[in-house]
Amino acid sequence: MTATLLTGVAELVTNDPSVGDGSPLGLLRDAALVVEGGRVAWVGQASRAPDADRRRDLGGRAVIPGFVDSHAHLVFAGDRAAEFAARMAGTRYDGGGIATTVAATRAAGDAELRASLGERIAEMRAQGTTTVEVKSGYGLTVADEVRALRLAGEVTPETTFLGAHVVPAGTDRDDYVRLVTGEMLTACAPHARWIDVFCEPASPHAFDADETREILTAGRDAGLALRVHGNQLSAGPGVRLAVELGAASVDHCTHLTDADVSALAGGDTVATLLPGVEFSTRSPYPDARRLLDAGVTVALATDCNPGSCYTSSMPFVVALAVREMRMTPAEALWAATAGGAIALRRDDVGVVAPGRRADLALLDAPSHLHIPYRPGVPLVRALDGPG
Ligand code: NIG
Ligand code: FE
After folding, report:
1. Ligand nearest to the CA of 69
2. pTM to 2 decimals?
């Protein structure tokens, strides 16, 4: 194996508080790293760097852990730009537009879906994302959900069965819950790591508390780990169900009661905030400070999807989190990297330390502060090649 020494690192964000400045970001200035076989082999001050087979000078840039985008819906066809425009003119988001994407996705061939999925993954990588979760949920038949998960599995191990995205138009609710917990789950479970439910009593299209509990329990019995779309449109039961059932993450968390915050603080379910959704649906942002001050683990993700939020950009999400949710730049970057890794229960990514994957992102800037400081500027990209 060839060891590569990376030098010229003005600032290294490790997310390892045992090194550098001792903060949660574990910041090291004038740093160097050794990468070998796709793993980090050494991290420290440039002045103490060991010898290596090769050297690569990064020219005074900052290096951060690659973003971990723990929530994305990337297998779809069709376009809902007109729905976005209508929303900007005052129409409320309620998930009804999902049916449009379901129809377009069912009608698309495998090659078309694979190609657009690949483009979205490339778009994410070009903005520094090195780990991404991908959900099904725009098929909603046994064959179409299996197809989405097979395609997702070609690009990531973080595949999520979201047959319970909405009840398809013209289908009886009870019949659909039986299908999702029966034949569809049996067919999809071998292709998925996770199961997710859009739990939202305020939407006529999504699932209530009893349905969500039934679906998540069946998923767990089929060997899947749990995630939940909860409390997006109302202070519904999603957060408390997620904590009670031991879900790795509950995502959105836009409308929370004190009991929801206490439940999250007392459990090990991550609260994943998706502020791109509030931006793109013109809704009030989640109260990130309330969660952080209560000691809840917070992650940030894009929720990249054609309806509620069509951005693939984690730097944009970090900027929103800082500007609109009053997270500090350090809290936001941690949530978009280490937080996402915890939301996916991954201990090999999100932190730059010996033994971890060398999934790194490079900034055309000297410090991580430039991510929210220079919003909309393409500063971040995944670091390609050996190290
Ligand atoms: O996470 N809320 C449910 N699902 C997606 C939106 C899907 C869509 O509108 O196509 C979300 O926001
Ligand atoms: Fe989502």
Report:
1. 2
2. 0.98
